[in-house]
Design a protein that fits this description.
The complex is a heterodimer of chains A (251) and B (768). With 251 residues, chain A is α/β, with parallel strands linked by helices. Chain A contains 7 helices and 11 strands. In chain A, 26% of the residues lie in helices and 24% in strands. Chain A has a 9-stranded mixed sheet with strand order 2-1-3-4-11-10-9-6-7, sandwiched between helices. Classes of the chains: A alpha/beta (251), B alpha+beta (768).
Chain lengths: 251, 768
Amino acid sequence: MKFGVVVFPGSNCDHDAFCAVEHALGQEAAFLWHESRDLAGSDVVILPGGFSYGDYLRTGAIARFAPIMSAVKEFVAQGGLVLGICNGFQILLEAGLLPGAMLRNRGLKFICRPVHIRVENTETPFTNACRPRQVLEVPIAHAEGNYFADAATLDELERNGQVVFRYATPDGAITDEANPNGSLHNIAGIINRQGNVLGMMPHPERASDALLGSRDGLFIFQSLVHAGVHAGVRAVAAGRASPKAEAAARR
Amino acid sequence: MPEITSQLVEEHNLTAEEYDRILRILGREPTITELGLFSVMWSEHCSYKSSRPHLKHLPTRGAAVIQGPGENAGIVDIGHGWVCAFKIESHNHPSFVEPFQGAATGVGGILRDIFTMGARPIAVMDSLRFGPITERIVSSDRTARTDVALNRRILRGVVGGIAFYGNCFGVPTVGGEVVFEPCYQSNPLVNVFALGVAKQDQIFYARARGPGNPVIYVGAKTGRDGIHGASLLASAEFSGADGQQKRPNVQVGDPFLEKLLLEACLEAMQTGAVLGIQDMGAAGLTCSTCEMGGRGAVGIEIELDRVPQRETGMTPYEIMLSESQERMLLVAERGREHEVIQVFRKWGLDAVEIGSVIEPPVLRVKQHGSIVAEIPNQALTEEAPVYDRPRAIPRRPVPLEPPFPLCSRSGTELAEDLLQLLAAPTIASKRWVFEQYDTMVRTNTVIAPGGDAALLRLKETGQGLAMAVDGNGRYCFLDPRRGARLAVAESTRNVSVTGAEPLAATNCLNFGNPEKPEIMWQFREVIEGMAEACEALAVPITGGNVSFYNETEGQPIYPTPVVGVVGLLENAALHCTPPFKNEGRSILLLGGAPASREEFAITFGSSQYAQTNLGMLWGLPPGVNLDSERSVQACCRRLIAAGLAESAHDLSDGGLAVAVAECSLGRGVGAAVNIPSGGDPRAWLFAEDPSRILVSVPGNLLADAKRIAGEYNVAAEIIGTTGGAALTVWQGGRVLFDIPIASLRIPYETGFERAVEQGSAHEERMPR
């Protein structure tokens, strides 16, 4: 499987995502330059963390205008899998590929530390290798990760199982103390309605090597490989109906 | 053009004798631009005129050293075709005037020093010193008023600035130190230590060569910011309202631009068309042109009309002296310059040919085609004045003996003392600081902040690079030579307890006004102490930085040498960390017993306990036996390599009691510790005798561990056992005190945050 990692000016977790895919996962990775409109035959596109365009204006606000993003949007429309990590999540929000917005963390400070997240939906191409309600230890590193959406949007996200990760205690309780940044409903990651675009604030690529403390992030990358193998991603992408249908097809 | 008057010369921080020297060198009166060039290049900050004669006493060579002092960073061979580049630099004065931008640009400056050598920065550490953020800290000058609100504001600004720059740039900030003493209230210290790696055959140097080759300016445009940063800000004391007035001398940083510059420079270097490169830091365009010419024994001619400018109507003087950030100067191969320029265009950066390399070894500056300055390189660099300034032994600042007899403390009182120490901002967990830093970006951080040293793995080789930075101004104030030896001992020991072998060091020497004989004496003593320790511990100094004039209203800081050490661990996976991992392990104390009763009475006055618990300062810092230090470190590394030590932590601020508490707090594994009966228990619990390391060892491996310690002739006393949910201290068969881990955790985890956040809402509203 081929993972394309987009490089915007100011991306700084691009190498990390690349290494996680090539070394920890053993899959092919390629960098995709922001000025290009060619996804180089990627099966999965990763929008990595960092400070694209220096976070000028707002996080992710300028990156959404990059030429590569029009290709990403087309790819999404065809059912291609897109994973946005941290700044990548912020870009997906600004690009309208995911609903909601990011506010500054409630403590108004950048926070970098390992957190625990509970997997809320395992029937997605990003979490099919996880157990229901599995708790993963994955680090966060952001100043604007306080997820916000209006009540109607939140309702819809919850109803459709689009909340994929929530900040939790190590034993899986969803509490305010376990919420590092003030996100509504402890949201750490959401998926689009079609089930092929995931945005998450925690960094799975930083949890892909036991030497650095955790390998839990690999569940997410392995899920993608799984989804790709079973669905023959590119071939059938256009025909995919919903994550549920896809999951059913897999069984 | 203004006439060069004696007043103008004085305003440029040049003495009458120095001006005469300029007249002799040029054989004529300088232009105003030339006066500016001499002013910055002959400033203390750029010329090291007071320190140079002394710095040459430091050992700078070693088997692994590829590049010692004199370049932008030192370079050390780590094998497998890789090298590491590292250096520490101060940004003290700007960080007092404007804490956020001062600290941010401090990070930016040292990062450029690393990647200008062709190395990709992989980690940063910061050594920070501030005035007290809690009311109760003793000052050697009892008249000084502690302004905790000011100190908290500076701390918040500095930490914010470091986070702002490092996080966006994408380099992990992996640790450092944060220390509080009254002497740093108006002179905070911000020393930034950066480490990078490169392939051995892809090192770049700041040398111009080949007359006719193009000189290319890349990166940010030049503005009026930071003019005279090096000469008037960093090379003079503060007085009165300076803090406010000097704000325009501080530069403003853009980490996004620096990130682009990094990627573009490393990519441009790959073309093979870059011959030499130097960043524009202190003294900006002036320094980079004359130094690159000087090192290459050629000249550089530039046309200022071609320099990208942010503002209109800038004079040659302003363009040459601007310290605008995120700029580099490089020399490319004639005919291939377009390859280089193309890379910078790709990254959206300015890259403009502003001149060329010329035969005569001069810096020639033109504007609108006519020469506005022409000075021999050597006059600005090698021939800058050097002063062997007078030195005088100062009067002892504090008494040698304790000012009153140390009355005995009950077990309960000793427990309270420990809790008070753990809450002291200098000792308490720095989580509030380091969680604001991205400590993990680049996915190499094996040991994150909170340990004795950080450890970064190299993906390409599987090796680990350890980094530690340490200093102790209080020790050096009481005895500069002993203090400097202790700083080298502790920083290398911190590297050794990870399992890594110290390879080389970099130093940042923070002092008061060198024109005062007492300060110069301190400086000389520190250099000698440092040289002794570096020789004995086999860590050459490959570069660094001197920061003088850390004085306000005539009050100098403590002499504060800070030592950054880099160590190598062949297999990063075989590292060790401080926390106790398992119950029922024997706790071994590697290294000697505490000092004699008489020595204790004198050296205890330098301890963190004396500062925090007694509010007093007296005596001398402990002496360090460098042979013992070397043995104990080697022994510890061997125990780790042999897989015998499950944890390793050095004894430092707060002594044994704090060290054991820290080992227990890591993973909540308690400990029972025995101290010998007789004498003041504080000599065991809180004294800071050096060359001691705590390791925990499984029972079945104890004999092996003791045998190895014997081979190194290192004492390895079993002082206790891990386990339980409390820290229990026994003396003479009875429990001296017993504190649940949960009770240790509260002061340790909250002490710092409470101190810095207290009243923060109110302080933020106060006008700056």
